[in-house]
């Protein structure tokens, strides 16, 4: 951690008063049930899903099965948490492991009929079908940034939570938008990294922003970091990117032109795709491997999308909300900006006056998805 491990606050856990507890006790079992109900899985998968739900509720956390291709890695990562209750592991850690276990239970990594069949595709496809494709005018670049930020509300994990309709009425708790644009306007050539979050509506908005950066020459290259496999229900994989591009191509007018430009940019190497294994690891970016650090270090700006990437960027810890974002992210190997709707407890870089009015509002501004932020360390 930037201030040294000893100075950093504790990782957020699963205290009954915290958000992690709700996810562990409410969202996770519902998600298992939904996945089970929406697929014609055989008895083996149904048993595995039921056993996983039971294990999370009351059993000790088990390691991966003997034949799992990534067993050795998870054994190393999970040594401190296996054979203890799930609630003993940090929230950031166990939730990532949960998605790995869910994929294991449905046979995603096992050659056979369900090999590489995305258990969340049902919801992702429905959301993409219903998404409207509105292309803001190119000169409205702040609108593109905000669309990408609020697109982050389209997090299908919320389907399984207690949240009601999402709205953006809370506005931004921090807004470094002008800083981001002035950094891109100055200097160059810019090589921008976009660390994607959700598929569907959010990724469509991200693609419009990326198209703007490339088309205007603000960025010479953009590297889009996707997930190597399904994760957190709606996180974007390469298959989801392809679905979004097809959706753009099928829409009228400017949207189809955006698709043509982006596909050409991919073909020509100006829009590069990455799906690093660490993108589904249960750790914050403080522990990223050297090759990924080198990649981020080569971006003149890395844009981190969404709530989980924010948690991983600042470390999912009980930071006082006024702790400067620049201080907490000083370790990151290059300029970095976060576009996020707030959907979990952690936050940094909120000024004291804003914080006291947010706290006085009595709402769940940290977790309800009604507030957003644009923060940058350049
Ligand atoms: O990264 P995203 O899609 O914006 O949000 C992921 C999320 O919904 O999942 C976790 C709870 O399940 C929280 O980190 C966060 O609220």
From TrEMBL:
GO BP annotations listed: DNA damage response
Keyword Metal-binding: yes
Domain Damage-control phosphatase ARMT1-like metal-binding: 24-351
Annotated catalysed reactions: beta-D-fructose 6-phosphate = dihydroxyacetone + D-glyceraldehyde 3-phosphate; beta-D-fructose 1-phosphate + H2O = D-fructose + phosphate
InterPro entries according to UniProt: ARMT-1-like_metal-bd_sf, ARMT1, ARMT1-like_metal-bd
Keyword terms, alphabetized: Hydrolase, Manganese, Metal-binding
Record-given protein name: Damage-control phosphatase ARMT1-like metal-binding domain-containing protein
């Amino acid at each position: 951690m930037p201030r040294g491990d000893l100075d950093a606050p504790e990782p957020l856990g699963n205290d009954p008063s915290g958000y992690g507890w709700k996810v562990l006790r409410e969202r996770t079992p519902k998600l298992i049930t939904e996945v089970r109900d929406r697929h014609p899985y055989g008895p083996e998968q149904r048993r595995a899903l039921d056993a996983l739900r039971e294990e999370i509720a009351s059993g000790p956390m088990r390691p991966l099965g003997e034949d799992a291709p990534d067993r050795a890695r998870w054994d190393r990562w999970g040594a401190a948490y296996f054979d203890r209750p799930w609630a003993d592991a940090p929230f950031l850690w166990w939730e990532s492991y949960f998605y790995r276990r869910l994929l294991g239970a449905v046979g995603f990594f096992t050659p056979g009929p369900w090999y590489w069949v995305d258990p969340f595709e049902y919801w992702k496809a429905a959301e993409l079908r219903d998404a409207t494709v509105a292309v803001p005018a190119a000169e409205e670049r702040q609108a593109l940034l905000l669309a990408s930020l609020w697109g982050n509300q389209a997090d299908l994990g919320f389907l399984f939570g207690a949240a009601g309709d999402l709205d953006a009425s809370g506005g931004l708790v921090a807004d470094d938008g002008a800083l981001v644009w002035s950094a891109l306007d100055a200097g160059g050539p810019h090589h921008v990294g976009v660390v994607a979050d959700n598929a569907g509506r959010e990724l469509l908005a991200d693609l419009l922003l990326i198209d703007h950066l490339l088309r205007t020459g603000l960025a010479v290259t953009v590297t889009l970091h996707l997930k190597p496999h399904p994760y957190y229900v709606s996180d974007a994989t390469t298959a989801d990117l392809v679905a979004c591009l097809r959706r753009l191509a099928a829409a009228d007018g400017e949207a189809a032109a955006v698709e043509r430009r982006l596909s050409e940019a991919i073909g020509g190497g100006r829009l590069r795709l990455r799906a690093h294994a660490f993108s589904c690891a249960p750790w914050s970016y403080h522990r990223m491997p050297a090759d990924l650090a080198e990649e981020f270090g080569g971006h003149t700006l890395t844009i981190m999308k969404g709530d989980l990437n924010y948690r991983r960027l600042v470390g999912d810890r009980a930071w006082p909300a006024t702790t400067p974002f620049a201080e907490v992210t000083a370790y990151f190997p290059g300029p970095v900006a976060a576009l996020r709707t707030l959907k979990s407890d952690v936050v940094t870089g909120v000024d004291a006056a804003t914080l006291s009015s947010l706290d006085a509002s009595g709402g769940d501004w940290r977790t309800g998805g009604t507030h957003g932020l644009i923060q940058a360390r350049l």
